[in-house]
Amino acid sequence: MPTSRSDVSAAAQLGGTFTLPGASVALQRVGYGAMQLAGPGVWGPPRDPEAAVAVLREAITLGVNHIDTSDFYGPHVTNQLIRRALFPYPEGLTIVTKVGFRRTEDKSWRPAQSKNELIAAVHDNLRNLELAALHVVNLRVGGAHGPSDASIAEPLATLVELQRQGLIRQIGLSNVSATQVAEATAITPIVCVQNQYNLAYRGDDALIDELAARGIAYVPFFPLGGFTPLQSATLASAAQALGATPMQVALAWLLQRSPNLLLIPGTSSLQHLRENVAAAALRIPADTVAKLNTIGNERTDAH
Fold this sequence. Notes:
The protein is an alpha/beta fold. The protein is 38% helix and 16% strand. The chain contains eleven helices and eleven strands. It has a seven-stranded parallel β-sheet with strand order 3-4-5-8-9-10-11. It has a two-stranded antiparallel ribbon with strand order 1-2. The chain has a two-stranded antiparallel ribbon with strand order 6-7. The radius of gyration is 18 Å and the shape is globular. The two termini are 27 Å apart.
């Protein structure tokens, strides 16, 4: 796999692009998730702020043109780091943020989906990112155990109103069920859905195919397993055969899964960042894909 900066940058192009509905910028399919730039437990500042800034700048140098973040990471930490590292933002960069939760002093994650809470969250993102309008805002609902089918019409209506005011350009969803996606798309155009999905956690297979048919992006969070990375003998064997790391194979599998998948692997390491971006160049043979498709049946920890 490519290792030099120029080779990794060239590899990024091989993953292809996807354009969000109604947008003019084609997004490289391997992006960057900023959550890990905050301190331990996604709380407080990073141990090395300069290293965090370097990772963000390197991502842009490598060709990444979409970053996933939220003002409740830290809280406020990742957005402030993004602004420090990248403002004034390069042309074509899309920053995707989330609202709908907040952090409390005990470091908990609490729903924050009332009208006033959502308005405050949007303004926090605008201020900390130093943007006049947020590029994409995902409404984050559900809970730690995944989505529900509860109506999201009320909080979504607040985002639609903020969009009418010119504070939000496009709206997405996060941690939602197919029922909630159907409800939302009947209310307003939805450009992306961000749910948990990876080699071992494949509950959204049908939803991915439906969204692909409609030209809507699907953005898997925890693409590498989350806080406890994917572990699988099948994955390790495939990586060895392909001359890649297991995580590169897991990312490449996602890229080959469907053309509407946009990846946002997160890391605070320059080396891992380059490995993640270089995964765009990896092509997995059909017989290996078939073997990898069985991983969901193995006893792996996907969370």
